């Protein structure tokens, strides 16, 4: 994948947008996750990817360590095809410094 990205750049093609590059503050990270939880509460894969975006913004290795996971396991759990357990979601949220909130529907 990295090779394909380098080849695309070498040919002058624009690389894809990476939201993780724009999540700079804890407030931005929390707002991003909250937007997923509010706008797409049934999109489990999307919410997991949002956690992955935030983890990449904070540093995947550090988040994995704080969540008690290997970096590879964290990438796999929060990838597009990943299916993290609820315990993993809670551990990652804690490591990211965000909380999940419940509101009446």
Description:
The protein is mostly helical. Helices cover 61% and strands 0% of the residues. It contains six helices and no strands. The protein has helices at residues 2-10, 26-39, 44-58, 60-67, 71-77, 86-96. Helix 3 packs across helix 4 and helix 4 (60-67) crosses helix 5 (71-77). The chain is globular and about 35 Å long. Mean pLDDT is 87; it is low at 5-9.
Features:
105 residues; 6 helices
Percent range of helical residues: 55-70%
Strand content: under 5%
Main pleated-sheet profile: none
Count of alpha/pi helices? 6
Structural class: mainly alpha
Span between N and C termini? 41 Å
N-to-C order of helices and strands: HHHHHH
**Integer average pLDDT:** 87
Q: What kind of assembly state do the chains in view correspond to?
A: single chain
How many beta-strand segments?
Answer: 0
What does the radius of gyration come to?
15 Å
Low-pLDDT ranges: 5-9
Q: What would the principal axes of the Cα set say about the shape?
A: globular
In short:
This protein has 105 residues and is mainly α. It has 6 helices and no strands.
Question: What is this structure's SSE topology?
Answer:
Blueprint: H1 2-10, H2 26-39, H3 44-58, H4 60-67, H5 71-77, H6 86-96
């Amino acid at each position: 994948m990295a090779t394909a990205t380098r080849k695309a750049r070498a040919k002058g093609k624009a690389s894809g947008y990476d939201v993780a590059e724009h999540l700079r503050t804890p407030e931005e990270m929390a707002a991003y996750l909250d937007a997923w939880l509010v706008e797409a509460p049934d999109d489990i894969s999307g919410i997991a990817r949002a956690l992955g975006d935030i983890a990449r913004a904070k540093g995947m290795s550090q988040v994995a360590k704080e969540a008690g996971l290997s970096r590879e396991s964290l990438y796999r759990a929060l990838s597009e095809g990943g299916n993290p357990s609820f315990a993993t979601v809670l551990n990652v949220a804690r490591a990211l410094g965000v909380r999940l909130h419940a509101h009446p529907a």
